[in-house]
Amino acid sequence: MDASPYYSCCGRGNESQLKTYDAQGRPVGFPLYYDNYFVPRGYAVVLVDLSGTNRSDGCVDVGGPADVTSAKAVVDWLNGRAAGHSARTGGTTVKPAWANGSVGMIGKSWDGTIANGVAATGVDGLRTVVPISAISSWYDYYRSDGAPLYSGTPADLAAVVESASAAPHCTAVQQRLAAGAPSNGDWSRLWQQRDYVADAAKVRASVFVVHGMQDLNVRDINFSQWWTALARTGVDRKIWLSQTGHVDPFDFRRAAWVDTLHSWFDHYLLGVDNGIQRGPVADIERAPDQWTQDRTWPAPATATGTLGLRPGTLTTATGRGTATFTDNPALGEDDWAANADSASPEKTVFTTGALTQDLRISGQGSITLSVRSTTSSAHLSAVLVDLGPTTIRNYEGAGEGITTLTTRSCWGDSTPGDSACYLDTAADTAPAGYTIFSRGWADLGHYAGLDRTVTLTPSTPYSITFDLAGTDHVVPAGHRLALIVAGTDSGLLEPPPTTPRLSIDLAHSSLRLPMVGGAAALRQTATPTPSRALPGLPAGRAGAATGPENFR
């Protein structure tokens, strides 16, 4: 089951496929390969129009109770707990005699987000969910610890997907969506209603998470906080982490993905003991099209270590000294990383020396900063960088790490009006002198919590702790690990209303990282060795062009 708002407005998959219908209004073309591949293998495939979209009544709720309830109602119907009808006006009662009540939800982006939301209701009959590039808390799509990631509100996204017949009746709902998402980043009732992590304890379905570690649309905090919360439930979990941006695994690892997904559904929906639940939990893309596996995630032997900050240096010793920078909203993480060893006023950089052995960071880190601002408002960015030459997927390119080819391959059976053959893809790669592999952003005015914004008193010290996005990255021997702290991350974070100069008290600041082997794994490093400016990705940024209107 794939519940989506995109079946008539925007399409699904790399080819933006829409639902199509015959003259009598019966479905002919189902987007994606799910029906082509799985129906011949004993499954039924259900594509659900979310409230207010395509042929569904109601209003778009952007991940809220109406969105989730409209999809949950279909799970209830498939399990005989809800009534279905042959027409919008009533008609005859329709029962899914072809269904055994065992449901798996899947989908990318908003679709996968709804799968998370329905799973968090604990509904009977939902056996598994496969959220791909999905949100776990809508606050963390639009905001980051008080800082705005986008200037708009969920009302803008609702307007993109709402059907022409629904829109005239949904003005009040859109007004509530806009009013409930204050630009100051406060944790409002609207965000609380759309926080599935808070209800992770209710999840009874197994969960197969897929996410791009360079997803600058649905940013990686969404998968890592969901994964961590689910660990406490005891449900079966599996995870794939690619080096792409906001991309479906069908388009970056097609054959392996379809085979793995088939085995996953066979086990959790049909009860086949094929061993997938006993296999590796994590598949991680280390370099373009090069994958490794682990029996758990975060990786075995991972322990969180605390690193100190000294001027220019990232160390296992206690931090000391101060560092200063001035917010420059015109510059962002690529500008900072490419000039990591060049002093400039808009950033401060802390690096290790050249590593004498590989260092693997696996999981979700955090940073604590003691900061003074010269103005009444300030935003902070923290970026982890691997300084050294490599080849990466070009996640800032148009395909966010993939190139779409002109050839096609077929996955399942075609029917008249619904081809099973899809455009092939290949990795889009680029040489780079650095790799940005984790990020975090915060508003200093939310140092005491998200409930309300505090107007900063200039020159007063404030201590703030915020999370960095989950990652799994190996900094190879010979490279250096860097932490960059700055203000506005251009294209990824909206600037504050003032332009502050910030001073960090390094003795009361630290970085906490999940490292295989703990902090001891970082002790074998040489003295920091600055280098010249490093080449970055080709011009163009997925994040700058990626907003709620491109969520899909």
TrEMBL record:
Annotated stretches, region: Disordered: 523-552
Highest taxon listed in the record's lineage: Bacteria
Signal peptide (UniProt feature, chain positions): none
Record SUPFAM superfamilies: alpha/beta-Hydrolases (SSF53474), Galactose-binding domain-like (SSF49785)
Heme keyword on record: no
Biased composition (Low complexity): 532-545
One matching Pfam family: PepX_C
EC number(s) stated in the UniProt entry for this protein: 3.4.14.11
UniProt entry keywords in alphabetical sequence: Hydrolase
One Gene Ontology MF term: dipeptidyl-peptidase activity
Broad class of enzyme this protein falls into: hydrolase
Domain Xaa-Pro dipeptidyl-peptidase C-terminal as annotated: residue spans: 262-512
UniProt-recorded name of the protein: X-Pro dipeptidyl-peptidase
Organism listed in the record: Kitasatospora paracochleata
Source organism phylogeny: Bacteria, Bacillati, Actinomycetota, Actinomycetes, Kitasatosporales
